[in-house]
Amino acid sequence: xxxxxxxxxxxxxxxxxxxxxxxxxxxxxxxxxxxxxxxxxxxxxxxxxxxxxxxxxxxxxxxxxxxxxxxxxxxxxxxxxxxxxxxxxxxxxxxxxxxxxxxxxxxxxxxxxxxxxxxxxxxxxxxxxxxxxxxxxxxxxxxxxxxxxxxxxxxxxxxxxxxxxxxxxxxxxxxxxxxxxxxxxxxxxxxxxxxxxxxxxxxxxxxxxxxxxxxxxxxxxxxxxxxxxxxxxxxxxxxxxxxxxxxxxxxxxxxxxxxxxxxxxxxxxxxx
Length: 272
Known about the structure:
Layout (H helix, E strand, L loop, with lengths): L5 E8 L5 E9 L8 E5 L9 H13 L2 E5 L16 H16 L7 E6 L1 H11 L5 E7 L5 H9 L2 H8 L4 E3 L8 E3 L1 H5 L19 E6 L8 H9 L6 E6 L9 H21 L2
Parallel strand pairs: 3-4, 3-5, 5-6, 6-9, 9-10
Antiparallel strand pairs: 1-2, 2-4, 7-8
């Protein structure tokens, strides 16, 4: 029987002492034996996006619980994007997981991260936050701020950021320019995953999807991230030929369905 979602706020205090509320939507599983899928969206995305809505509908069909949320400075949550850091968004993700773990019935969490959300989710796993039974990544974007975004800026843009100014950057997805500042780049250093000395020491099912025609984040980034899960005995990367970064076309969504189904079923067998 379908269950209705609950919308609520979680107060968050940032490193600069400001208090913001993030908006969270949660739907309970149909039974206590079913897991909860937690979706972590991407850079400048919202929980009303195509994949977030698709997973909401899939979770209802399967009887899973489902939680989605907006980071600070995104969607329906408080805060200005350019004032928020990667640490703020990572903290938002952990706060949502802690809220799920407080539920009276034990719910295994299937962590699904899209683009930047996969980077943040990987750092959650690196911290070994409890309650997570499997991980699915969609066009993972680890370290993109340092490896891709900063090098793409002009010398004038870099100089403006170094002076403490915000800059506006056009993007291929909408007419709204992204406003970014040094806050974004200053917060990535201890979250980087692709250097030689980083590992993610969890043994859970890992399922990664990436399109070969991704013009934003090369598919090799998912391959590099996969190698960081050195303790995971069941970790796979599936490449979708011709798919772009969004992975929201019908074929990609069918592959996403299969990946989440597989993660849920594998986790259930592993924790039985």
